[in-house]
Amino acid sequence: MPEYDWSKFTKRISVKAPVETIYEAWTTQDGLEDWFLRLAQFTTPDGNIRERDDFVQKDDRYKWLWHGWPDETVEFGLILKTNGKDLVQFSFAATCTVTVSIKKEQGETIVELSQEHIPLDESSKVKYHLGCMEGWTFYLANLKSIMEGGVDLRNKNVKLAQLVNA
Fold first, then answer.
1. In order of start, what are the domains of the chain with their CATH numbers?
2. Are the CB atoms for 26 and 100 separated by under 8 Å?
3. Which of 38, 39, 72, 104 has the fewest C-beta atoms under 10 angstroms from its C-beta?
4. How far apart, in whole angstroms, are the C-alpha atoms of residue 120 and residue 91?
């Protein structure tokens, strides 16, 4: 049996929605706030804040806040790559890179998320491998829920802690 690779993971989910709709959900402020974040603010390289329905572009910077968490829990990062149709890549969680690709397989739309460059110390294995994998699994399920039925599974009460949906 090969040794487990703690430096990366990949999660996949089928979503009954067009590739274009899912891409917009990952690459606009409005889209991300529908299923993932409380705030998804993007700033262009020249310092302008993108409009809510503008697609992110390579070298945009982001500020993200989550429902169920105070404003002190904030993620800042950089958009590393977009292709305008089915791929976005961004920095995340200290040293990590997240790549989201949307594709058709066997007549289904598949969202594939990979997180790489996870440090190999014990704390990072727990926080950025196990913790992020749990978080991404929930948020991918919430994306599917929103896209297929409109039910938002996120906890939005900051007074409730240690929930899988926050």
1. 14-149 (3.30.530.20)
2. yes
3. 72
4. 17
